[in-house]
């Protein structure tokens, strides 16, 4: 019986690891089985993709209501507007609906009422592929292909020349690192190649996005803390890609958004506060409380580091 049981047990563990990978994939795309297909319109409106061809995009949310399921509304009437070239930050506690806003901008889902507009038109007026070509995303976690680091950047715009790839890598502050690798841009990376650190992967994603040259940029900031040096390099790279583009940042670290044209504080699917950093600080509400909490947490981490260093 044992002889029979062992292979069954083995198969069972393979089955459960396949299931886990599938679930991970769904998580990666933030899509669960109830995803509703969205349709392209019969007469789609044109939309320019690249910043070199048209000015930065504008974004407007007009009283947007949305739920992944009909019985649970997540956004209860969200409105904001990002004029061409502006920098808008969305902050708020976990589960507030921040990522949902970026998924609606991409039109992974349709709103239940209200409008999501890009360049003044409802996103339902565009072909999905045209809309997505105009939007660049730097995600929290970048997936690298098992290919060369050069290809991983070129994926932002297949057909880019090697000069364009190198230019993007320089702006993203990753060129010097790449040329220090044994095979330079030809070095293989990913699961079966060289493993890159979180900060390096993020800079590859930034270079990809610079190459894509989208008119609208969504930055989904990583929650995990990077060391100060890496953090500074990433910030410089992000400034290069955000310059002149309309940028929506889903922010986890408040220090990165003090220059935002408008900060939206989202809570329970509603915009609870909005304004610039100084206005919100003097208002002494939720945003100011988030700063106080973050400063407190940083001091604690510093105390722990000091204690560890001193022992
Ligand atoms: P975090 O800071 O943790 O990323 P968030 O503010 O981005 O949080 P969202 O990911 O927008 O929050 O989620 C808002 C709510 O919608 C949560 O309650 C979440 O459980 C729910 N939700 C998110 N994605 C789905 C989905 N695909 N299907 C069903 N519910 C979902």
UniProtKB/TrEMBL annotation:
TM ranges: 1-18
Region feature Disordered, mapped onto this chain: 294-311
Residue ranges with Acidic residues bias: 297-306
UniProt-annotated location(s): Cell membrane
Positions of the ABC transporter domain: 59-293
Protein name (Swiss-Prot/TrEMBL): Metal ABC transporter permease
């Amino acid at each position: 019986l044992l002889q029979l049981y062992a292979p069954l047990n083995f198969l069972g563990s393979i089955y459960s690891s396949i299931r886990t990978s599938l679930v991970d994939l769904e998580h990666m795309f933030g899509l669960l089985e109830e995803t509703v297909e969205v349709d392209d319109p019969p007469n789609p409106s044109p939309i320019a993709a690249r910043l070199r061809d048209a000015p930065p995009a504008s974004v407007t949310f007009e009283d947007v209501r949305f739920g992944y399921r009909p019985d649970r509304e997540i956004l209860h009437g969200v409105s904001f507007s990002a004029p061409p070239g502006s920098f808008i930050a969305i902050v708020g506690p976990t589960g507030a609906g921040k990522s949902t806003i970026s998924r609606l901008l991409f039109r992974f889902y349709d709103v239940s009422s209200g409008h999501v507009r890009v360049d003044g038109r409802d996103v339902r007026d565009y072909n999905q592929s045209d809309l997505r070509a105009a939007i660049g995303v730097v995600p929290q976690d970048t997936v690298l292909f098992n290919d060369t680091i050069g290809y991983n950047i070129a994926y932002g715009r297949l057909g880019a020349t090697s000069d364009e790839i190198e230019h993007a890598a320089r702006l993203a502050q990753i060129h010097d690192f790449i040329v220090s690798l044994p095979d330079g841009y030809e070095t293989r990376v990913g699961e079966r190649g060289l493993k890159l650190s979180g900060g390096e992967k993020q800079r590859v994603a930034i270079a990809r996005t610079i190459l894509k040259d989208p008119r609208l940029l969504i930055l989904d900031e990583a929650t995990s803390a990077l060391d100060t040096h890496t953090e500074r390099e990433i910030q410089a790279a992000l400034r290069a890609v955000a310059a002149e583009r309309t940028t929506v940042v889903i922010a986890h670290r408040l220090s990165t958004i003090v220059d935002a044209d408008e900060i939206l504080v989202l809570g329970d699917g509603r915009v609870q506060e909005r304004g610039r950093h100084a206005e919100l600080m003097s208002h002494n509400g939720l945003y100011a409380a988030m700063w106080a909490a973050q400063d407190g947490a940083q001091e604690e981490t510093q105390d722990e580091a000091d204690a560890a260093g001193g022992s």
